[in-house]
Every structure is written in structure tokens, then in C-alpha cells.
Amino acid sequence: MIDREADFGTPAVTGGPLVALTIDGRPASVPAGTSVLRAAAEIGIAIPRLCATDLVSAYGSCRLCIVEIAGRRGTPASCTTPVEAGMVVSTNTPRLTALRRGIIELYLSDHPTDCLTCAANGACELQTVAGQVGLRTVRRLPDSPSHCEEPPQAATPYFSYDPARCIVCARCVRACAEVQGSFALTVAGRGFTSRIRPGEAPDFLGSDCVACGACVQVCPTAALIETSVIRQGQPTRVVETTCAYCGVGCSLRAEAQGETMVRMVPSRQGGANQGHACIKGRFAWGWATHKDRITTPMIRERRTDPWRVVGWDEAIAFAASRFQAIQARYGHRAIGGITSSRCTNEEVFAVQKMIRAAFGNNNVDTCARVCHSPTGYGLKQTFGTSAGTQDFKSVDQADVILVIGANPTDGHPVFAARLSRRVRQGAKLVVIDPRRTDLVDRPHARATLHLPLLPGSNVAMVNALAHVIVTEGWVDEAFVAARCDADSFRDWAAFIADPANAPETVEPITGVAAGLVREAARLYATAGNGAIYYGLGVTEHSQGSTTVMAIANLAMATGNIGREGVGVNPLRGQNNVQGSCDMGSFPHEFPGYRDVADPEVRHLFETAWGRSLEAEPGLRIPNMFDAALAGTFRGLFVHGEDIAQSDPNSRHVVAALEALDLLVVQDLFLSETAAYAHVFLPGTSFLEKDGTFTNAERRVNRVRPVMSPRQGRHEWQIVADLATALGHPMGWPDSAAIMDEIARLTPAFQGISHARLDRSGSVQWPCDEAAPEGTPIMHRDSFARGKGQFVITAFVPTRERTSRYYPLILTTGRILSQYNVGAQTRRTDNVTWHPEDVLELHPHDAEERGIRNGEMVTLASRMGSTSLRAKLSVRVPLGVVYTTFHHPVTGANVVTTDQSDWATNCPEYKVTAVQVSRANDQIGGTAD
Ligand code: SF4
Ligand code: SF4
Ligand code: SF4
Ligand code: FES
User: Fold this and answer.
1) What 3-state class would DSSP assign to 464?
2) pLDDT at 272 > cutoff 90
3) Is omega for the bond preceding 48 within 30 degrees of 0, making it cis?
4) I need a labelling partner for 786 at 20 to 30 A (CA). Which of 127, 139, 297, 399 fits?
5) Helices and strands of the chain, counted as H and E runs
6) How confident is the model over 24-62, as pLDDT tens digits?
């Protein structure tokens, strides 16, 4: 059996004055408000308990945790009794033991006693407590009613519910409500008939359950248990690692038997998640050993040839010689590469170094180009650092929370759970999004305001909010005077006060009533700590960078920067998108966002890498595609990205890939992109990687191998081998050495090493001499750039316009159970929840077109068309349709356009003029 994380019985209390008491003759000192149960646990005294766990609030139902307190009558439950100064507590007297034995006997008299063959055997808390109190026999009354014959149910593909083993402790009900915020479970009935039910629904799948697994984690018996544990048995070893899906970056305990994964349990110590996870991180890891994985290198002369399986040396030599041949014929800038935000910092660093040092150019870009590059640009201009300002727990101090263009319940579920908890505690929530996302109507955490703006009007909307703040006198003058650049503020204030930015003026642009905008602005400026969270609904627009800067202006004008509870926080999409940007994946920046044109910085890298480096920025991804079609760019290394599926205007992307002389793809599966490749280098899953990811709060977290690389070597080794074949050996003995090099060359990472992370856990950059413990909150006393810079953010409408032929606006996004292009999640049981992409369409728009719910429709834009199933929904406003891009069969990006952000070329995924018709009807569009 493995060591479980310590459970202190009730949640920690922080901040209160310390209270001293005595427990079993030993002194204890804990913050006021702490339970006696927890105080005892903290000094190593384990009071038997069943209904209490430190992940949820105390309930006081099982009565096992009873204690005796000097001067008090009876035996109070220690989980619901707060400590008091001078208290003298006894936890283990003969009277208590006898009482506990009676309670446990009662539980076991209505519980199966097939412990040896139970899936929880050895990890069952009921079994443990029975041993603790020395129960040896269980009396059962003949003919007494029992639940023991109730059959188990498959609650979801990932866990089962066995009512016979349920002791009705309601831990699951509380976890669902308090940790996850879904309120999907209830205790139905009373007394003996009490049972756990998924609300009014017939089963879990039909209920509000989002399969986060919080209930499974807290269940003390095998009543709720992972099907993988039932199938394989209890794990025998545990490895602390980090989720490889979204930018929350949950810390996970991978529990395995040898090299076989058994289950994933979120870590209580996880700085980003503190014991919670979502359906993806907790359950959707089966793809890592899926039969579709390619584990041998493959090459072919032409993309029409069949693949030839070869050894590593041949594959590397083939790729290197082809890259060299292209450079010899077309010049050294005719090749380049794309790094992956799914990979570790060390792997990304290796790829960008290979491109700069071994390819000898700066033609490196990353998938962040198509998601958060405007964040990098916008926050650097205004604050001086391309990163979010807060840690996640900062939201616990927020009084008003603005969520703009983000759908965290689907995209960042663990953060959404935390945010919702804060709203349940009383914080106000303003959601600015075209769709009525789940966040708007969460149980017991409804948004105060929802501003359903039209796609493409973000800048007008944020300017209008700022206009109200400036013209109604809500500016935090003291903050602005002390912390911001005076000239830029004066110019910006004059610009924003112009009536052209008034909510009433922009109402026709945003589609949101001016009164609602004014209310939201007042709330943000006056309710105390104002925090802004935003997502790809902000960045993936032709004015993405402008909106990021408008948001930064808003936060600076109201003084909502530099302390807990406030800030500007991009919700990063992929697990390591922050890290891939930090590691120098952009064509104009070395690691640490330092300009390639800066001679001093270049000299630093030239000295370290032993060769001269280019001063000119390289090609961005869209420029690479254009150059490929123009014949000047002929060789591409794609690291773990499926650009043929994920990038906009797929036809254009595919044409560019087809034009290449050499495409090298390093990936796990034969992706859509790999179909055009000449070399396939198999990669490693996160369960095999050794390195770090950096999450949306700049937290650098260890990723540790649970199993050895399925294809025989680490991805950074493959990249280093390719670089060596190209004449530039990297010389790293292991992944830790790469991090050491990163720390030597990147000031914000100066204090970070694998050894340090292994010793003391995750750390948020900057971590340097000035901040040796890292930096949870940025810009506390001054901005990274000195004074905060206000930037004028004029609204410029997108060139993508609706027309007679394309009268609707398509906006795209994600769904909880699937991830990005679905390469991983489609290869797991998550398909149960989202088997296909659907098109959300307002019922009136559907009726006009004669479309019924569930019918196949054609979605067409000026770029192309595809077919998918219609889902009628009032979550989208009139004139707007919405879909996801998780399934290649839909190819939603066939219809998206080439429009992109003016500053960064981030594609405008969120605004495409489309028409929708029944699948068999003709769309009468031309080029208009
Ligand atoms: S299912 Fe588990 S956690 Fe829920 S009430 Fe039953 S025993 Fe307790
Ligand atoms: S899996 Fe999560 S959402 Fe579903 S019932 Fe359990 S706690 Fe609630
Ligand atoms: S919230 Fe994100 S990081 Fe956490 S488990 Fe889910 S997908 Fe993984
Ligand atoms: S653990 Fe305290 S009453 Fe159950």
C-alpha cells in the first residue's frame, strides 16, 4: 500500500490568533476556529473519524470522533468542536473506546464484510477505524433490514457507486457542493432509508455531475470508487506530477502498480489546486498507453509513400541531412520550427535552442501564437511583463470578479470551482461573454451581471467600462499618481472620456444596454478588490492585443493591481503555454522575453551557446505558411502540435504543408499534420516526461516520469540528437541540466532548479535574488517596467463582416470533457460526454432556416464549409452560433478565416461570418 497524504480531519483555519490547549497531556497551539479534531491531528494524535475529512467542512454525523473535555458533560464530537484556550481534551479513554466500538459495530451490521475481495481493501477508512477501536465481532439481528444486497451501479465510465457499501457519511455530498460547486448529490430519505442520490436524476450521467471525482476522493469506503481500481487493484507506488491539460496546472499524485497507472489523485499540497481536479486531469490519462500511439521513428521520401519504420539514428540522420540540403540550396532561413505548449519547459527550451543555434536562424514560433500571444504583447506594453499578475488563491480575496471572454467551468474547471466558491461567499461576479456560459447560472453562485456582447466588440466594451470610471470620477487618483506614467494617463483619460466611448454610443456595436455597462463599471470600480480574469475570447480577435491593453488600463485606473484579490489574469489555455513563451519560443525574443536585436542579450546567448546568433527576428507561424506557399520556406520541424487541425483556415495550412520539401513531426499519434510529414519522431506522454510546466499563475511545477519513455528516449534527447547531427551538440546529461542552463540565462528563473522544486515544491517566477521564494503577486510596489503605461485603445471593427450570404457570426471554444484538438481526450472514455462537435444555434435562427434540434447542418463561411449536428440553445444570442473543434471529422477550422490580431497575428477564431443551413440545402453564397 502507498502512503496517503495526511488528512487533518477538518479544513485548516488561517489568520486567527493562536489558541493553546492540551490534548492527551500534550500541548497544542492552533489558530482560533480550528476544530479539536484538527488540533489533535496536527500534533500527531489520530482521533477515529468517518464523516470528517479536511477537504470539506465538518458535519458531525458519525459520532466516532467523540472526546472528553475537562469540565464539560458528555462526549462532544471533536470535528465540530472548536478549540478554546486552556481546554484539556482526552481522546482515548476506555469509555470513548467502548462507545466508538458500539458505533462501528452498528455501521458494520449493515455493511458487507467481504473485505478481502473489496476493491478498497487496505485503503478503506471504515476497515481502519474498526481496527483502531479493536472491534473483533459484529452482531447482526436475524431478519433485520439491510442494504447489503443493493446492487452496484456504474455511475460513470470512470467510477462506480455501490450503495451497499455506503455509510451515508455525506462526505461526497459536501465535496460536490463545497469543493466542486456542482451540488449534484443529495442524501435522499431519512434514517435507515437514507441513500445518496444524484439529485432528481435517474443516474450520475443524467445529473449535474461533471465527473470531477471529488466525491470519489473523499469517500471513506468503496461506495464510490474508480473503476480502474476495481479492475486493477490498489496502487503500490506514487509519483507526484503535474496535469498536462489546461493552464491551471493541477498537482497530481499518479498512483501506479509498477509501470501501470491505476489512478490519479489530486494533491492536497498542489499550489494551484489544493486537492481538486477535473474530469480530464483526474480520469482522462488512458490515452498515454493507447494502441494508436506510435513508438518507433518513421521516414518516407514523399508524403505519398508508405511510412518506413527505422531506428532512431537513421531517422535523425535523415532529418538532419534533409534540413542541411534545404539550407544549402535555399539559404539558412529556409527552415524553421514550432514549439509546443504541451511539452515541458526543458523540451521547449531545447527546440528553440536547436533552431537558433543549430538551424542558425530565429524561425521559431509556438502555438501560443494562436492563443495568448496578445497577452504577451499587451501586458508587456502596459505592465512590463508578459504574464498574469496573481496566484489563483488571490481570488479568495476578490470582492468583484470580471470574467471576460473566458469559460472557466469548461476550460479551467478547478479555477472555476474556486471562483464559484468565492461567489458563494458573497463576491459579485460580472460575466462579459456573448454566450450565457455555465458561470452565469451556477447553483448558489449566480453572476450579478451578464453582459452578452456581440463577438468582435471587446474593445468597445472595455473602453465603455473605462469611460464610465473616468467620467463618473471613480479613478483611483492616488494609485495612478504614485504608480503610473502621468503623461500616458493624461492622454488616455482624455481619449477615454470622449463621448465616442460612452456606453450609450457603443450600444449598437456591443449589443449591450448602456445601463448594464454602467452598472458593471460602477461595481468593478467601487466594490472593493476588483479582479479581472480573461481568456481566448479576448485574445483571439483582430484587436486581441488592444483588448488586453484596455483591460490593463482599466485595472490601473482603478488601482486594482499589486495586492491580493485584484489583478489582470489571463487564463492560459494549454498546460505550458506560459512556459513555452517564457522559454523563448517567439521569433523576436530569446528566453525571458529578451529582444534578439539587443546586442548585449545576444552576446550572452552567443557566449553560452558558442556560436553567433541572428539579430533579425524570424518568421511567425502564418509567415511560415505564406513563405512555404511562396517557395522560400521549405523545411519545418513541428513539435507536438497538430497545426493542420488547430490553426485557422485549414485549407491554407494544408496547402503550405504540402508545399514543404521536408516536414518533421514529433508527436504521440499520427495527427492530421503528420499526414503531410516526411519524418515522424515519436514523442513521450506527460507520464513519461521529466521536467517542468509553468501554469497560468507563473507557477513552475515538476513533471516526473511515472513510466519510462515508451519509445525509448526523452523528447529533449531526440532534439539534442538532431541538433548534434546538425553540428551543434547540446551537452546535457539530463533534464535538470537544461533547467540549470535556463536559470543561468533567464533572470526570472535564476533561483529555480529541479533540486529546489523537489525539495520545496513549486515556485512562481520571478524567482531570483530579490525574490528567493518566488513571486505570487506581481507589481506590488512598482510595475516591472517602472511606471504603469496607459495605452490608447481605439476600437477598430474587424474586417470580417456579416453579409446577406453570411449573416451569422460563428464563435468557437471548448467543452469540459474534451481538450483542444481532442488527440488525447478522444482516446479516452471522455467521449461519453462529448462524442461529437455540435453547433449551438438560437432557436429563432434555427426556425428561420427550418432547422430542428439534432439535425445535421452545413456551416459555411467565405473560407469553406463543414457539416455538424445542430443543438438549439438560448445560451447563444440571436445571430451568433458556437461550436468546438475537438473532433477532426468536423474540421471546424475549415471555416475560420485568415484575419488576425494586428500586433501578434493571433488568429481571429472568435469572429467568422457564416451561414447555416440544413445539411441537404444549398447555401446560396458567393464571395460576398
Ligand atoms: S458514497 Fe461514500 S462518501 Fe458518499 S455517503 Fe456513501 S460512504 Fe459517504
Ligand atoms: S464527480 Fe464531482 S460533480 Fe460528480 S457527483 Fe462527484 S463531486 Fe459531484
Ligand atoms: S483543471 Fe486543468 S490542470 Fe486541473 S485537472 Fe483539469 S485539466 Fe488538469
Ligand atoms: S468525524 Fe466527527 S462526527 Fe464524524
Assistant:
1) helix
2) yes
3) no
4) 399
5) 28, 36
6) 999 999 999 999 999 999 999 999 999 999 999 999 999
pLDDT-derived band of residue 922, with 50, 70 and 90 as boundaries?
low
Residues touching ligand 3 (Cβ under 6 Å) are 243, 245-246, 248-250, 273, 277-278, 280-281, 412-414
Q: Does 63 sit in the ligand 4 pocket, CB within 6 Å?
A: yes
Ligand 4 neighbourhood includes 168 CB (under 6 angstroms)? no
Q: Which ligand is nearest to the CA of 278?
A: 3
Q: Which of 222, 305, 544, 215 is nearest to 404 (CA)?
A: 544
The DSSP 8-state label assigned to residue 152 in this structure reads: P
Determine whether the shortest distance from the Cβ of 46 to ligand 4 is under 6 A.
no
Query: From the CB of 730, is ligand 2 less than 6 Å away?
Result: no
Q: How far is the CA of 224 from the centre of ligand 1 (A)?
A: 7
Judge contact between 344 and 691, C-beta under 8 A: yes
**Lowest-confidence region among 102-111, 658-667, 782-791:** 102-111
Total residue count of the chain as it appears in this document: 928
CB neighbourhood size of 728 (10 A)? 20
Angle at 524 between CA 518 and CA 527, to 5 degrees: 115
With 0-12 / 13-18 / 19 or more C-beta atoms within 10 angstroms meaning exposed / middle / buried, residue 340 is: buried
Cross-strand bridge partners of residue 241: 252
**What is the rounded CA–CA span in Å between residue 40 and residue 667?**
50
pLDDT at 924 over 50: no
Is the Cβ atom of 64 under 6 angstroms away from ligand 4? yes
Give me the sign of the Cα torsion angle 590, 593, 596, 599.
negative
Report how far residue 300's alpha carbon sits from residue 305's, in angstroms, rounded to the nearest whole number: 6
Q: Which three cell numbers stand for residue 403?
A: 470574467
| Closest to 727 (Cα-Cα) out of 301, 317, 311, 345 | 317
| Ligand (nearest to CA of 172) | 1
Measured by CA distance, the residue closest to atom 6 of ligand 2 is 215
Q: Which of 573, 575, 583, 545 is nearest to 339 (CA)?
A: 583
Measured from the Cβ of residue 117, the count of other Cβ atoms closer than 10 Å reads 7
Residues 290-315 have pLDDT tens digits of 899 999 999 999 999 999 999 999 99
pTM confidence score = 0.92
| pLDDT for residue 288 | 86
The residues near 305 (Cβ < 8 Å, ≥ 6 apart) are none
CA distance 815 to 821: 11
Which residues are near ligand 1 (CB < 6 Å)? 166-172, 196, 218-221, 223-224
66 lines ligand 4 (CB under 6 A): no
**pLDDT at residue 904 in the model:** 82
Antiparallel, parallel or unpaired: β 88-90 and 298-299? unpaired
